[in-house]
């Protein structure tokens, strides 16, 4: 196996390979079924540098005109702390998480409670509480 074909673990922390987890969400072949899946796929989009996916999954009422990703930031882990709603039959949900990163050799993190809404069958990131 060459490095280009070596399976890599998904950055979102499920333990699955990227091409079995968030990869299909990023390429549009498998949309997120729950708010947590969308949150995990958005974290992975930061990790793999997919700004287009971040914009595409942002609710149009709160979406910025563009997203600039810092190439010096390396996302190193995700802890999902709590979810409320956001299931298969829900129209809204929240996901509390802690994301870990490194930049310039120094560790950092972000703690957030994200709100998600579903419309037209698709989950979208709305905002953070």
From TrEMBL:
Residue span, YchJ-like middle NTF2-like domain: 34-128
Membrane spanning stretches: none
SUPFAM superfamilies recorded: NTF2-like
Pfam families the record matches: SEC-C, YchJ_M-like
Family: Belongs to the UPF0225 family.
HAMAP family in UniProt: UPF0225
Listed name of the protein: UPF0225 protein BLASA_4810
Organism from which the protein derives: Blastococcus saxobsidens (strain DD2)
């Amino acid at each position: 196996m060459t490095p280009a074909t070596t399976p890599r673990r998904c950055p979102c922390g499920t333990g699955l390979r990227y091409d079995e987890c968030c990869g299909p969400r990023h390429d549009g072949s498998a949309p997120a079924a729950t708010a947590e899946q969308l949150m995990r796929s958005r974290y992975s989009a930061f990790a793999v540098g997919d700004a287009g996916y971040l914009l595409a999954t942002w609710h149009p009422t709160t979406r910025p005109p563009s997203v600039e990703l810092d190439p010096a930031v390396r996302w190193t882990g995700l802890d999902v702390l709590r979810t409320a709603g956001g299931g298969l039959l829900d129209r809204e949900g929240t996901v509390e998480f802690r994301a870990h990163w490194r930049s310039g050799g120094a560790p950092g993190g972000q703690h957030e409670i994200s709100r998600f809404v579903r419309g037209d069958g698709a989950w979208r990131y709305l905002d953070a509480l």
